[in-house]
Sequence to fold (166 residues):
Amino acid sequence: MILHKGEVLFHQGDSGEFLYHIKSGLFKVTRLHENGNIVLFNILYPGETVPHHSLISPKETHGTATAVIRSEIEIISAKEWYRELKENPDRPLEVARLLQEKVRFMQQRLDHLTVGTPAERLELLIKWLDDYSQGLHLTELLTQEEIGQLIGVRRETVNRLLRGQH
Fold:
């Protein structure tokens, strides 16, 4: 399946009938809170199978995944995935590797959030996304508000930092 920028892979609260293997592209995952705040809390990238919290057992989706660039996805039946997990002795180790990779990614993101200045954090985010962005600039992928959420600063600070890059 091909999704284009702005198209939704799954919505917050979906039942979890499917898992998705990201072959190419990028997705932002946002969560709508009861108070109306929408928070960007994850970026999904090629090689991942998602939702992560449903790799071993089903659970409704925690957020909404929206394509930020043209993306190719393999749709996987959750029933088939869980059956394979039980029947194939190698599958649990594969799932453990997927989860390990995501934990390492999250550790890297935490490192990026705690390093130096906001400008340095922005630069680290840009460098990381360059590997997946198909040549698009950060601001073509994410809003200033979303960039701020990823690097731990306010939108106004992102605006100032981006102006300083040109």
Notes: Residues 1-87 form a domain with the Jelly Rolls fold (CATH 2.60.120.10). The chain is about 40% helix and 25% strand. The helical segments are 78-87, 91-114, 118-130, 138-141, 144-151, 155-165.
